[in-house]
Amino acid sequence: IESGYFVVPSDSGSNGCLFANQSGQIVLAPDSTATPNQWENSANVTVTHADNTAPTLTDGAVVTRTSDTAATIVFTTNEAGTAYYLVVESGAAAPANTTVKGGTSLGAVPASAVSDKAVVLAAGAKDIYVVVEDAAGNISNPLKIPAAVYAPDNAAPILTAGAVSRASDTAATVGFTTDEAGTAYYLVVESGATLAR
């Protein structure tokens, strides 16, 4: 704001001045005299700038399909707000941001990376569009997150032969290697016994 003053007419017939002081504050100075730009006191006025800037969603979003009809998504927004998503067929025309907002709410999101938001979709390749609406009602451009066809994991983990260390007749520790994370179980049988898979 540039320093200076401006005459502001009032309903009462007297004038006033608006000017910027050295701190950048807007000061309202009422003028009750017949001579312009003369005032007896002043008051600071707080000026609030309207937020007309929509959130920005960052590319590089990730989708993880857990079934034909369920997935989780990860994306980043530079403003906090409420997120919404809409699922369309893969390759379909991008919907408007207001159309995406009319989809399903993902709830409140922070101004940062947003992780593991659950979405519902149908079988087959889909495109998931996400928007964020900030507190001022500005809606981001839609962010496209392609979701490939769900491929179930039908491959069992592979275990590498390990070792056992017996601490007593009734206690031991075992070590082994697996190529996949998961939950391990054990069963004790007689030496040489055969187990069915």
Folded structure, characterized:
The chain is mainly β and 197 residues long. 3% of the residues lie in helices and 45% in strands. The protein has 1 helix and 13 strands, in the order E-E-E-E-E-E-E-H-E-E-E-E-E-E. It has one helix spanning 97-101, and strands at residues 5-9, 15-20, 26-31, 43-45, 57-65, 70-77, 81-89, 104-109, 113-120, 126-133, 143-147, 159-166, 172-178. The strands form 4 sheets. It has a 4-stranded antiparallel sheet with strand order 1-2-3-4, with no helix packed on it. A hairpin with a 5-residue loop joins strand 12 (159-166) and strand 13 (172-178). The longest helix is centred in the middle third of the chain and has 5 residues, at 97-101. The chain is elongated, with a radius of gyration of 33 Å. The N and C termini lie far apart (78 Å). The model is unreliable at 1-8 (pLDDT under 50).
Structural class: mainly beta
Q: Helix tally? A: 1
What fraction, in percent, of the residue positions are helical?
under 10%
Number of strands: 13
Strand content: 35-45%
Mean pLDDT: 83
Biggest sheet record: 4 strands, antiparallel
Structural topology:
Layout lengths: L4 E5 L5 E6 L5 E6 L11 E3 L11 E9 L4 E8 L3 E9 L7 H5 L2 E6 L3 E8 L5 E8 L9 E5 L11 E8 L5 E7 L19
Antiparallel strand pairs: 1-2, 2-3, 3-4, 5-6, 6-9, 7-8, 7-10, 10-11, 12-13
